[in-house]
Design brief:
The protein is built from 13 helices and 7 strands. It is α+β, with helices and mostly antiparallel strands and 374 residues long. The strands form 2 sheets. It has a 5-stranded mixed beta sheet with strand order 2-3-1-6-7, with helices on both faces. A two-stranded antiparallel ribbon has the order 4-5. α13 links the parallel β6 and β7. The two termini are 34 Å apart. 30% of the residues are buried.
Amino acid sequence: MKNMLSSALPGELTPFRSRLDSDLHEELINKIYVIGGILASILLIFPLIRAFDTGWLDIYIVHIASYVLIVGVVLGRRRLPTGFKINTIILLSLVNAMVGYQAFGLMAGSVFSLPIAGILMGLFSDRRLFVLFSVICLSYLIVLGWAFTTGVVEPVVSPGYLMNSTSHWLTYGVGMTFFLLISMVTLQSYRQTMQDLVRQIEIQRDKITQLANYDALTGLPTLRLAQDRLEMTLHRARRMQAHASVLFIDLDNFKQVNDLYGHDAGDYCLEQTGRRMIEVIRSEDTVARIGGDEFLVIVDTLPIPQHAELLAEKLLSAIAEPIEWKNQLFSISGSVGIALFPEHGDTPAGLRHKADQAMYKAKNKRKGGFAWAI
């Protein structure tokens, strides 16, 4: 079962994972753009306001162009490819970060643009590209930090002025808001994705368990589940010092049904046979389909061994009842082999083998009857 699960799940989930990744990227980047578009609409007026205090700076052209481009992508986001939207937001974040750092140093209002670019690179690029991006960014910051601290580069506006500028603090606050919202949206999206993936795995696991334990045609337990139930039955019988029984049933003329009426009629015949046997047995007993036209009945603790014989007769009568298929009636019969615990064996495999031998004895003796194991 573990091998089945490990081999089936990846194959079953690969299309789901691919679709999930694509849908997640599309949904996530659209959310980021909507948030960015709202904030960009607000920030559009900030360079104009700050120009009254600092004078016009070339960096403001970059800011305005970035904000306009973000708003434009937001308006056309449904028609634009996901890859284009991802690359555009990363590039804009990098450009704004670099021009901001070079103009104002660590006092730049776009100080959060570089972490935003890093988050997006980590989400949407492969590991090697992200590592390369990180190395370049760290190297850039080291060089720029050295340039500022040694006086090679000076801020275009006094840091003291920026500390007392209302518009700068507002810009800084909006940038911080964008960073926090992107972080929150990203974490929430991936949390939901993980929950969806876990649910999908559980669905696939349940399907595998269903296929392993229950016959797809009749809904009856398979041999695998029947073996488990037989082991539990024998365990109870030993503890209670009671009898238990295994009945091996083979349909005698099932091949003729397939030949005369077709495989659909044969499938219907198997379904009806399984349903009839379930109606005959007790709730604590088990009917399993273990082969093409072979069934196994596990009879829990029997008051007296002869009850297994009575049950075999009832099962044979139920099987022999006519079956109607597309306004035609046909009948089948069954041969039953009976093995008793502990007289004929004390292990699941031993009892099934004895019941199988007894079934062939019944079939050779008289079809439509039963025989006891020896």
